[in-house]
Write a structure and sequence with these properties.
93 residues; 43% helix; extended
Length: 93
Amino acid sequence: MNDRLKQLMKELGEAINESLSESDQIAEVISRIKDGGYDVFLVLEATIGFNRHEDEKPVRPTVSVHKGDPEFKVNAQDLKFLKSLRISIDERQ
């Protein structure tokens, strides 16, 4: 990963954190929880994915009607995503 991309990812993380910490709605709810005698620990996880594209031409969506069973296609990105969810598919078919 190049340094520019690392910097952009850092900036994105900071922007998300700042937007949450400056949210009046979040602050108000946390305040009510604290007023109820509880400590608040807020941990959020964000998964951000990206792929480098190589001068791809825009693809226009098409509508088509198929008879019979639809074709099931899984690419490498699909497999990676499913694996991250601990989902495996039978590749023998």
